[in-house]
Specification:
Blueprint lengths: L28 H34 L4 H12 L2 H17 L4
């Protein structure tokens, strides 16, 4: 048996996404929309790049490289020489202090 239910009310207004941005409260709507759209495009590009990186790491793993070690090498290469040297010296000092060397 079906119940008699009132239909969902339909608004005469268009979808809010169809509306043009407006300047409101001192905020330039068009300029704000421009920034948001640029951010969205960059987020899409970032997602695509992350997928590409994932594939490269998977390929490297497939031929026998250790991905964790590769990630560490990439992080070390991003550091300037002095910071890298300091990090490595601290690591050696800590390892020595706990008897790992």
């Amino acid at each position: 048996m079906t119940e008699n239910v009132a239909p969902f009310p339909v608004s005469d207004d268009q979808d809010t996404q169809d509306e043009q941005p407006k300047d409101t409260g001192g905020i330039g709507g068009q300029r704000l929309m421009s920034f948001i759209e640029r951010i969205e495009r960059l987020e899409e590009e970032k997602t695509a790049l992350m997928e590409d990186l994932k594939e490269v790491y998977a390929e490297a793993k497939g031929v026998g490289f250790d991905v964790k070690t590769m990630r560490k090498v990439v992080a070390l290469r991003k550091m300037d020489t002095e910071k890298r040297r300091e990090t490595e010296e601290l690591l050696d000092l800590y390892k020595s202090a706990i008897g790992m060397m």
